[in-house]
């Protein structure tokens, strides 16, 4: 839309010989690429990242630390935070090709791969990225329904005086979440959901804070810190289960940190000067420090409170302890956060499909024409029929798959494993090597390759653990019959 606006604007200028404004870097209305001025800053970028990072992943961290123990659990979390910060900084440098201040912009992750690496890697990257975004949408639908059911069950449990087991089907709640996403998915562009990101970021602090508070209260009440140095003990689980669960825990922690997948898209909303990379690195540092502090507190206090029995989802597993109203607030905050996080993750996928369709069928009115819908007291809303149809179909599909596969921990672990190495480590490292012309076999090149290989091993192990978990779940599973 920005480029079209620039072209139209230029056309009027020639005919009317009016004001001297050219869509160049110095223009008040346009950036150096002819698109409308970007307005994002350090704070909006940070809120997008925190919305993307402190997602439902935080709720599985007490369970992950319970599998790994007091030594390996926090150590792995610190390791992941360092890797994520480092590779995100490498990726931020790839937003512009060539000069960091004036080089050609790459609007999406795939564009950055195309500019720096090219060839078949572009298709591989696109496939992994969009499959991962699709998977995240399914994972968030599952997580939101579990939280909605937790509210219903805690109230039911409270009213019956703990006499009623209160089994509920997850399907109606997934459908309710899907309906909300159909409405919000009509927001046209990534830069127009900044307000949704800020609301979601506030909600993530709310429920993480409540989870942390409940963990601290439980530790204080019992007066002892549970858990062990090596994690869940053999006997509670078999040796094989211990290995698979430890691997799955790696995937859960990887998922809790994954946002590199949409980093370039977030960076494309930032205004300059200073250079977008500089602002993005600052936003990344703040976000990673904040999220790591939260993760350590939530994961460690959850483990200290429950020990080996730490639930897969901290707030729904806290389940039916008082104060039940506080748990309800936390779970409502999770649902509101996930509504926003779903949009933050899906906007790049929506934009990709719409751009492809627009180029393929450039003459189609259905795909390219916007209908102005008047809203009293506001500016008209631009409704696009293709956007309405395709985005609604996408939400319906993710909701149906979520209803078929409602295994929160295993899905989270699998998504973390699938996206972590290629998108968070491999592509940023390879692009950075090309961009900075780092010579092959130099010390820096070797260090980057060792980092990449180590993360590949972690990804493979985490995927194996999560697949083993899904296989176990499927043995006792009936489609569309899941109740908690």
UniProtKB/TrEMBL annotation:
Family the entry assigns: Belongs to the amino acid/polyamine transporter 2 family. Amino acid/auxin permease (AAAP) (TC 2.A.18.2) subfamily.
Cellular localisation: Cell membrane
TM stretches of this protein: 42-61, 68-87, 127-151, 193-217, 283-304, 324-345, 388-408, 414-434, 446-472
Gene Ontology terms: cellular component: plasma membrane
Any one GO MF annotation of this record: symporter activity
Pfam family, one: Aa_trans
Name used for this protein in its record: Amino acid transporter transmembrane domain-containing protein
DNA repair keyword on record: no
Keywords for this protein: Amino-acid transport, Cell membrane, Membrane, Symport, Transmembrane, Transmembrane helix, Transport
A Gene Ontology biological process term: amino acid transport
Keyword Transmembrane included in the entry's annotation: yes
Segments forming domain Amino acid transporter transmembrane: 39-471
Species the sequence originates in: Tetracentron sinense
Primary location: membrane
